[in-house]
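Let us work through a complete example step by step.
Step 1: write down the sequence.
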Amino acid sequence: MFASLRKIFSFLGAMGQGVGTRHLGLIAAGVAFYGLLAIFPALTAIVTLWGFFADPVLVEQQFQSYSNAIPAAAFGILETQVNDLATGPKEVLGWASVLSIGTALWASRAGVGALIGGLNAVHRTPARGGLRSVLRALLLTLVLVGVALVALATVVVAPVVVSFLPLGPFAGFAINALRWLIGAGVVLFGIGLLYRLGPNREEEDRSDIVTTGSIVAVACWALASWGFSTYLENFGRYNEVYGSLGAVVAMLMWFYFSAFIVLLGALTNAILEQMREDAPEPVKDTADDSVPDDVMPPETEAEKGDDPDEHDGQDADREQDAKIS
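Step 2: predict the structure and record it as tokens.
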């Protein structure tokens, strides 16, 4: 019990020290700034790509169902952008699909690139340089946008599938529960991809998709979003201080908390990995040093020596010969 408590306190101490020495707060601020610049191009890319296969209005409808997971001030800004994209003229959306989708993905890359830099700082690995860094960030941006599109399709199709099940009055509850489970799964998978593909590490050192750090990050992010929303509804007065920019400042703060939590989850993985490497190897049991006969090395002729029974027979023969003579 005391050994377990020591490990827990050692872990918490290492986490607290890591937050300071690796400058998580400062890095999270930079990631939040780039995230604010990247979120609107990312939404443009998602809605535009979705428009190739289905009605963009579905994006707005499904986005509404997650209003409780995002602070109201931030949700209002994002909802306006999604609504403008989804309900805009089809020719405008098509024009955007031709001219702007590449620009949108390129702009979104800046936010992902900043987060990759933060993950490298957490793991204390050197950042990739030049074109390689840009391409890695762009590739990861494409992967995350693809994950968002697959998740959106799943959220749209899932209620239709559930409606065919004989759930009776529980159908509505099942649909809502499934929607939230899909949302949590997408966030977990997205963070896991960042942890695995983001840092500049060798293949054998990369983390799994689902790790302790990613689970901690999802749980803390949900709790922080709820807490920040409650604070804004009851105590926050950003509009009184920042005027018309109050909603933007609130969204920037939410991005800061989100980035800090993602980096905190990565630090959790890094500390646990270091503790496993520093743990002493278990002592082998040396009570039984016997070696099985089938693995014993064969005896040499010198080790075998002479057989005592053979010596006794030779002595008896010599005595018999002496008596006869």
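Step 3: interpret the result. Residues 19-278 form one domain.
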